[in-house]
Specification:
Layout (H helix, E strand, L loop, with lengths): L1 H21 L12 H69 L16 H73 L1
Helix pairs in contact: 1-2
Length: 193
C-alpha cells in the first residue's frame, strides 16, 4: 500500500516536472521562477522516486521472506507427520516381531531363537559378516602401518637432508680452514726468506 502510494505520488510529481520543463516558469503573480527553487524541486522529485523504488524492492524482499518462512513451516510439519507415522509403523512392527518370537520359541523355551536364526544361510551370512569385519580391521591396520611407514620415511628423509647439509658445511669449513692455514704458512715462508 505504501509502495503504491509512493509510486503514484512520484509519478504524479514526475508528470508535474515534465509539464514544468516545457513551461516558461512564470508564477501566477507574473514573476519568473527562481532556478534554485526549480533545481531543488527536481532533486526532491528524484529523491522521492528513488525512495519509492527502494521501498518497492524492500516490500518484495519482505514478501519473499514471508513465503520462505511459510515453506519452512510446512516442511517442518511434513517432517513431524512423517516421524509420527514412522514411529507408529515401527512400533507395530516391533510388536509383531515380539508376538512372533513368543509364538515360536526354541526347544529350550527361550524366545527369539527360532528355526530361521538356526538356518545355514543365517549362520553363513553371520560368518561372512565376522570375516568381513576381520578383513576390514586388517585393512585398517595395514593402512595405519603404511601411514606410519610413510611418516617415518619422510622424517628419515628430513634427517638425511639435514645431515647432508651439515656434512657439506663441515667440509666447506674444513676446506676453508686448510686453505687459510696454507696461506698463513706461505706467508710465514715468505717472511723468513
Amino acid at each position: 500500500a505504501l509502495a503504491s502510494s509512493t509510486t503514484s505520488l512520484s509519478n504524479s510529481m514526475v508528470g508535474v516536472r515534465s509539464a514544468n520543463i516545457g513551461a516558461n516558469h512564470i508564477h501566477p503573480n507574473g514573476a519568473a521562477a527562481s532556478p534554485t527553487n526549480t533545481k531543488q524541486l527536481m532533486r526532491l522529485l528524484d529523491s522521492l522516486k528513488t525512495l519509492g523504488d527502494e521501498n518497492a524492492s524492500l516490500l518484495k524482499e519482505v514478501d519473499d521472506a514471508k513465503k520462505a518462512r511459510l515453506e519452512a513451516k510446512a516442511a517442518r510439519e511434513t517432517m513431524k507427520t512423517f516421524q509420527e507415522e514412522y514411529n507408529n509403523k515401527f512400533n507395530l512392527l516391533r510388536a509383531a516381531l515380539s508376538e512372533f518370537r513368543a509364538m515360536y520359541p526354541d526347544q529350550k523355551g527361550r524366545p527369539g531363537n527360532n528355526i530361521v536364526s538356526k538356518s545355514n544361510y543365517v549362520k553363513a551370512s553371520t560368518a561372512e559378516k565376522h570375516a568381513s569385519a576381520e578383513l576390514q580391521k586388517r585393512d585398517q591396520m595395514i593402512q595405519k602401518l603404511n601411514a606410519d611407514l610413510m611418516a617415518e620415511k619422510a622424517e628419515s628423509k628430513k634427517k638425511d637432508d639435514s645431515l647432508r647439509k651439515y656434512e657439506s658445511f663441515y667440509k666447506e669449513v674444513k676446506a676453508r680452514s686448510e686453505q687459510k692455514k696454507r696461506q698463513q704458512q706461505e706467508e710465514e715462508r715468505r717472511r723468513r726468506n
